[in-house]
Every structure is written in C-alpha cells, then in structure tokens.
Specification:
- Two copies of one chain form a homodimer.
- Chain A is of the alpha+beta class.
- In chain A, about 30% of the residues lie in helices and about 35% in strands.
- The first copy, chain A, has a three-stranded antiparallel β-sheet with strand order 2-1-3.
- The model of chain A has no long low-confidence stretch (mean pLDDT about 95).
- At the A-B interface, helix 1, strand 2 and helix 2 of A face helix 1, strand 2 and helix 2 of B.
C-alpha cells in the first residue's frame, strides 16, 4: 500500500482581528528579555492523512466546514 | 524604514505523543461525512515581526524558552 497522502491546513486570524494569544506571546518574549519583537500573531496548523486522490476541493470543504471560522480566520492549504 | 523581518515558528507534537485535539478533529470530519480521513495532528504556528538582523539562533531561543514545550513538541523555524 502506498503511503497516505498528506495535506496541511494553516489557519490564521484575519488582519484587524484582535489576537490576545499573540499579544500574550509578544509581552512574554519581551519579559524574557528578547529585543526587537514587534507584532506577534498566533494561528493553528492541522496535518491530515487522507486517502490517495482526495481533491483540494474536499480539503477546502473540510477547512470551511470545520477547521476555520471564515468570519475571522483565513486558511491556506498545502498538499501535493 | 524597511519592512520588519518576519519569522514563522511552527510547533507540532512529537510522534507518539497523544493528540486529543487531532483525534477530535478526525472524528468530527468523519461525522461530517468526509471519507478517507486518517490520522490528524494539530499544531500551532506563531508569526513574529522582528527587528532586521535578528538571528535564527535568537528565534530558536524564543522557541525553546517559550513557544514550544520541547519535551513533547518539535518546532521548525522559517525565516528569510
């Protein structure tokens, strides 16, 4: 059997949406003494094993229906 | 002023570490009727704006000290 196909969905907050997690990381990095830290944005990544031949449209449907909240989040899909 | 430098740190669970979030996504996708979904792993991504000339070693120190729990997580750094 061939190795399963892999797809990666990266979900990030849209510009203009407040990102409290990113702000917390930013101030924690400054508190640790790191200099020159500007804006920090946090997001999530989902790595999926899929049956061979699964289309990009299917993965896009997964992202729209479950993985991302498209009101406030963007997503991008990487797959072979 | 030049645009700030950007770095992206991707944090994923090590192989063998249980991933309840990934399992929940997997069963939710199946519940929505998507077929051929295998293992699903969830991770996080941190996009940092940094002062020009910040070294990869500095970003690695940020990841080790704050962004990743290196007992159970791997991280990778993408930067120009």
């Amino acid at each position: 059997m061939a190795a399963p196909m892999k797809a990666t969905v990266t979900v990030t907050l849209k510009n203009g949406v407040l990102d409290p997690q990113g702000r917390a990381i930013e101030s924690a990095l400054k508190g640790l003494g790191f200099e020159g830290v500007g804006d920090v944005r946090a997001g999530k990544i989902v790595e999926l094993e899929l049956a061979d031949g699964t289309s990009r449209e299917t993965v896009e449907a997964m992202a729209r229906q479950l993985l991302a909240n498209t009101v406030i989040e963007n997503f991008r899909i990487e797959m072979p």
